[in-house]
Hints:
This protein has 14 helices and 7 strands. It is α/β, with parallel strands linked by helices.
Amino acid sequence: MTAVSTMETETPEPIPSVIDLREEFxxxxxxxxxxxxxxxxxxxxxxxxxxxxxAALLLVERARRSMGLAHEAPTLHMSFxxxxxxxxxxxxxxxxxxxxxxxxxxxxxxxxVTRDDLVGQYIGHTAPKTKEILKKAMGGVLFxxxxxxxxxxxxxxxxxxxxxxxxxxxxxxxRDDLVVILAGYAQRMDRFFESNPGFRSRIAHHIDFPDxxxxxxxxxxxxxxxxxxxxxDPVAQKSLADYIARRRTQPHFANARSIRNAxxxxxxxxxxRLFETARGPLDAAALSTIAAEDITASRxxxxxxxxxxxxxx
Length: 313
């Protein structure tokens, strides 16, 4: 007797003749990711605009692919340029989520690294390190902060070039399973791309992150405090606004990162003030309120705007 296969032949899904992009926007989760971006990040209007434009492009490309109009995945590698503390890592996290929801990457996780994670200290050390990081990042997004430090032509014994060559090969050959985002200061990134044209040719999306305004930094500070159940009293709010205006003129200012550090020190002063002055039980309001003196005790208020050593406290 002749064996008869009981396996059924899978019927291919029919190619749609029309696609409702608005419905795709609603059901894909893109709307939710963009809403989270607006909710989590104050300011950054041009960055958010570029992310929305990129999301629209990817939605259209996905629609074209489902209709048999597109045959190659779009190039998704990116460059984020801007000063420290401008939200580059947070946006990279949201971008990973966005790409995952649209089906451009399998997992949607973010692996954040610097030169030290990729480049070894001796011959034969760099390739295994770089390949191990790439293995962890596959199916997601690899975020390389201060990427220009990979290239150090002044040091003949530097092994960064080996990491660069491995990255370029993977970015080209496995671009359907890995998105690489290079980040750093704008001018240094420009020089890096000039010295390594292979990166520039593989990166389709360049997004510049502007510095925050004083008002935006104050809003960021209040949001950070609110997330930890702290608040500023009215005088402290004015003192913090004054602090921000002074601090940003001084060296080593890092936008939201410097504001976070300032708030940590304000909370430290508040705790010591309460410990030293409290003469009885304290209620939740007292334990949660930052006073003006917790802000104005910073040496930012006692030093000029010239250069000083280290970050102002």
